Amino acid sequence: MAGTELLVEVTDDSFKAEVVEHQGLALVDLWAVWCGPCQMIAPIVEQLAQEYEGKLKVAKMDVDTNPQTAIQYGVQSIPTLLLFKDGEVVEKIVGAQPKQNLLAKIEPHLPVS
After folding, report:
1. Which one from 19, 25, 30, 35 is the annotated catalytic residue?
2. Does the N-terminal or the C-terminal CB of the chain have fewer CB atoms within 10 Å?
3. pLDDT over 90 for what percent of the chain?
4. What pTM did the predictor assign?
């Protein structure tokens, strides 16, 4: 599906509709432009969006311009990845992690195909 945006940019305003009301799995990357570790995991997050297209919705949220959601979910350091299943947080991954660590948190929640 060339040309399709696999990563959804969400804001405080669109978060509920895009993530909380999403049925299934949604991974949200809370990051900021100035955050080095955030830049390190960005390509991994993009890979996950491609590899799990149709099974995992992947969203990114800049916490500098959207502080309310970060406060609401108790995000104290970035990057923080929140994994939602049917609107509930099922995993919280803090800090830059290798892809294997992320997969270990995500895969148990994926629907069995």
Report:
1. 35
2. C
3. 91
4. 0.93
